[in-house]
Design a protein that fits this description.
The protein is an alpha/beta fold and 781 residues long. The chain contains 25 helices and 24 strands. β19, α18 and β20 form a beta-alpha-beta unit. α2 crosses α8, α18 packs parallel to α19 and α18 packs across α23. The longest helix is centred in the N-terminal third of the chain and has 43 residues. It is globular. The relative contact order is 0.08. The structure holds adenosine-5'-diphosphate-glucose. The site of adenosine-5'-diphosphate-glucose has 26 residues, from α9, β19, β20 and α20.
Length: 781
């Protein structure tokens, strides 16, 4: 074999396909030719290397027909060495990509097999094909050959509940008869398509949906694979690439090339390829990438009454960072500047009326935010759960009906999400109807077969309870009443939306490990412990994270004015006292650096243990402390706050209202944060506090126990103080120790602050765990 001469040409093709030649041509060149696809991209990204003489021995690299050491141009040698190093990296990346191609090829073989013999395909078929469906958007109406969504075959079978199948009758509850005649009528509602709307979605007939999707999958996949197979076996190429250097060093000689031109060309090409690879790294989620739609009654910063809004605004961003395509669906309670009208209009039946909804959307931080607009939601921004029980129920029925169809009708970035490889994340009772609708309207009818639902429990105390007759408002087939009907000693037999959601969801998550355990007890489950125990296999606790764009003392926007300042782990010793002084000034409290400033932020209700603080206040004011409480909720507790402020003007501030800026400033300016919650599924304020160097004193329950490791003075570990029963005396005991440490053990105090601030409390880890749950749901059949 002739000595190696180097003239690799690397090209990124305009169509993004990958070309890598590996065949011996007449001139004796070794050519690699293969196709690379980057995962989770519709179009493959291409690399082409015509490798014919890349040698690790630079002296053998030919320039203009002479050996490079002869021309003495060391700089060229260096440049080539650098190029070779880069080439190695590219080859390593290619090898990785080839492995993925191989996996895809296997997957497609499985598809083929399944088409030939669908019955024998079994579960593995479904498992494998969902990966392919990830990137299959709903075909355009013409592509699929159907335009009318939700058309259901006129002939179907269902059980009436007495074991006798009925043919040709609607399974819908009474309110559906007349609207759905089993022919061209739409399932849960009639849909109006705005003619101007660029809607790409379709909903195929039940009988055709799977085959159409699979055809679409197969066509594109087979093209890719044929490209690979038509040239060289992927495994062969991989085998050759196992030792890229030896392969290349043994390559035959090629015509002399101008090293200047060649090396710079190679350098540029490799650079281009490297950049292409670097700028779009493979998703962290790898092959698990999914389409995810989080559905929530509130979403910060647009709407928020508490922690649910925070989670809906931040978890999706962390999931998007892992490479998933993520959407949040929330009601549009007001004018949101960022969100544009999508042009899509639909009509849904709710409370016996045809209600038109429209969709607004924004793309922020990698997430599609879709807001459902309708007169029923408008102006409820400050009173999201306002109105009577029936008002809220009707709003949530409408919201869930519209939300479950968003993946079909709302084109985000021009393309709808579609229903393949899709998972919904519903939150609390307000959206617990979504898993039920998904099942009753679609999956029971052979639609949305690849869509899954996960229900997150943020607070089981609110369940959407009512009399059994409320069932008629949710528009479901009669036999679905069994999911909702629930008996407990407190409510007797009643209608319970959370119960139905827990049963219908594919998986259930709650927001801490501690709470997942408590939910199984009669006290913690608020009656639903029976259902939770029955469904224990699908329950998982995942502690919430912190949205570090919003809550980080280094960048917090609310600390940029009025004497506050941003601070970090390096500067908190000066930054925090400055924020404390600014807070004291803003609240009109005496500006005293030495006095411990205690904060409380939260809903004023039984859960948050405000009454325990009330009991402890006479003791507290004797301790020479300052106390600021921010909250809104129960009228009597709001009054109580105001009274305390009136009584102890120089020590206590009771701020009644909902003010995000003040919440941030208290978190930064206070020394101690009190959270005597009776129960706390996770709790976010203690997490924020620790990030800001503020020491939490908490009732060790639910997520508080999970996240606040008690201070141990013997080995200087822990983050705060905990007490083991929701009693004022216990609170006083823990707070007493905390104050003592604050006053007498400055170093320990600083250590507590530092350890809290050093934690990584971001959403990234939690998002990874959510991903595990979503993947488990996806493969559950
Ligand atoms: N008056 C006020 N003004 C400004 N901001 C205010 C405020 N009152 C509360 N907030 C803010 O609302 C959020 C409340 O978070 P929590 O975790 O305490 O929530 P909540 O009990 O509502 O949520 C439920 O869901 C969350 C999320 O899963 C769980 O952490 C929690 O345990 C569970 O009870 C925090 O961002 C807090 O700063």
């Amino acid at each position: 074999m002739a000595s190696g001469s180097f003239s690799p040409r690397i090209e990124v093709r305009a169509d993004s396909s990958v070309l890598f030649n590996s065949s011996n041509n007449q001139s004796g060149r070794t050519m690699f030719h293969f196709l690379c696809c980057r995962p989770n991209r519709k179009s493959p990204i291409g690399l082409g290397i015509y490798g014919d003489g890349l040698s690790p021995r630079f002296g053998r690299i030919r320039a203009t027909g002479k050996e490079s050491d002869k021309n003495g141009d060391q700089s060229h040698v260096d440049a080539l060495q650098a190029t070779i190093e880069k080439s190695k990296k590219v080859l390593a990346a290619q090898r990785n990509l080839l492995r993925q191609i191989d996996e895809r090829r296997k997957m497609v073989s499985s598809f083929k097999e399944s088409f030939m013999n669908p019955e024998s395909a079994g579960e593995s078929f479904y498992k494998q094909d969902e990966d392919r469906l990830t990137n299959v958007e709903p075909a355009s109406a013409d592509a699929g050959g159907f335009t009318e969504p939700h058309t259901v075959s006129s002939s179907y079978e269902l059980s009436t509940g007495d074991g006798e199948p009925e043919t040709g009758k609607s399974y819908m509850s009474e309110s559906y008869h007349g609207r759905w005649n089993g022919s061209e009528e739409l399932l849960p509602r009639s849909v109006q398509m705005d003619e101007q709307t660029p809607v790409f979605a379709h909903t195929p007939q039940a009988s055709t949906i799977d085959s159409v999707k699979l055809e679409a999958v197969n066509e594109s996949t087979l093209q890719e694979i044929n490209h690979v197979e038509g040239n060289s076996s992927v495994n062969d190429i991989i085998a050759q690439l196992e030792e890229p250097i030896s392969v290349l060093s043994n390559a035959p000689t090629v015509e002399p090339v101008d090293v200047n031109e060649s090396s710079s060309q190679v350098s540029n090409d490799v650079e281009g390829v490297s950049n292409a690879l670097d700028s779009k790294p493979p998703p962290l989620a790898g092959a698990n990438v999914m389409n995810i739609i989080l559905v929530s009654a509130e979403c910060a910063p647009w709407s928020k009454t508490g922690g649910l809004g925070d989670v809906a605004g931040s978890l999706p961003k962390a999931l998007a960072r892992r490479g998933h395509r993520v959407m949040v669906v929330a009601p549009r309670y007001g004018e949101y500047a960022e969100a544009q009208h999508s042009g899509v209009r639909k009509i849904y039946k709710a409370d016996g009326q045809d209600i038109e909804v429209t969709y607004f959307q924004a793309y922020i931080d990698g997430v599609d935010f879709v807001f459902i607009d309708c007169p029923w939601f408008r102006h409820f921004g400050t009173n999201i759960y306002g109105g009577n029980r029936m008002d809220i129920l009707k709003r949530m029925v409408l919201f869930c009906k519209a939300a479950v169809e968003v993946p079909w009708y709302v084109p985000c970035g021009g393309v709808c999400y579609g229903d393949g490889n899709l998972a919904f994340i519903a939150n609390d009772w307000h959206t617990a109807l979504l898993p039920v609708y998904l099942k009753a309207y679609y999956r029971d009818n052979g639609l949305m077969q690849f869509t899954r639902s996960v229900l997150v429990i943020h607070n089981i105390a609110h369940q959407g309870r009512g009399p059994v007759e409320d069932f008629r408002y949710v528009d479901l087939p009669g036999h679905y009443i069994d999911l909702f009907k629930f008996y407990d000693p407190v409510g007797g037999e009643h209608f319970n939306i959370f119960a139905a959601g827990l049963k219908a969801a594919d998986r259930v998550v709650t927001v801490s490990h501690g709470y997942s355990w408590e939910l199984k007890t009669p006290e913690g489950g608020w009656g639903l412990h029976i259902i939770i125990n029955e469904n224990d296999w699908k329950l998982r606790g995942i502690v919430n994270g912190v949205d570090t764009q919003e809550w980080d003392p280094r960048h917090d926007l609310h600390l940029k004015s009025d004497g506050y300042m941003n601070y970090s782990l390096e500067t908190f010793c000066s930054g925090k006292p400055q924020c404390k002084a600014a807070l004291q000034r803003e609240l009109g409290l005496p500006e005293r650096p030495e006095v411990p400033l205690i904060g409380f932020i939260g809903r004023l209700d039984n859960q948050k243990g405000v009454d325990l603080i009330a009991e402890a206040i006479p003791w507290m004011v004797e301790q020479d402390v300052q106390l600021v409480m921010l909250g809104t909720g129960r009228q009597d507790l709001e009054e109580m706050l105001k009274n305390f402020e009136g009584q102890y003007r120089d020590k206590v501030r009771g701020w009644v209202g909902f003010c995000v800026k003040t919440a941030h400033r208290i978190t930064a300016g206070a020394d101690i944060l009190l959270m005597p919650s009776r129960f706390e599924p996770c709790g976010l304020n203690q997490l924020y506090a620790m990030m800001y160097g503020t020491i939490p004193v908490v009732h060790a329950v639910g997520g508080l126990r999970d996240t606040v490791q008690p201070f141990n003075p013997f080995n200087e570990s822990g983050f705060g103080w905990t007490f083991d029963a929701a009693e004022a005396s216990k609170l006083i005991h823990a707070l007493g120790n905390c104050l003592w440490t604050y006053r007498e053990f400055k170093e320990s105090w600083e250590g507590l602050q530092r350890r809290g601030m050093e934690q990584d409390l971001s959403w990234d880890h939690a998002a990874e765990l959510y991903e595990e749950v979503l993947v488990a749901a996806k493969y559950q059949w």
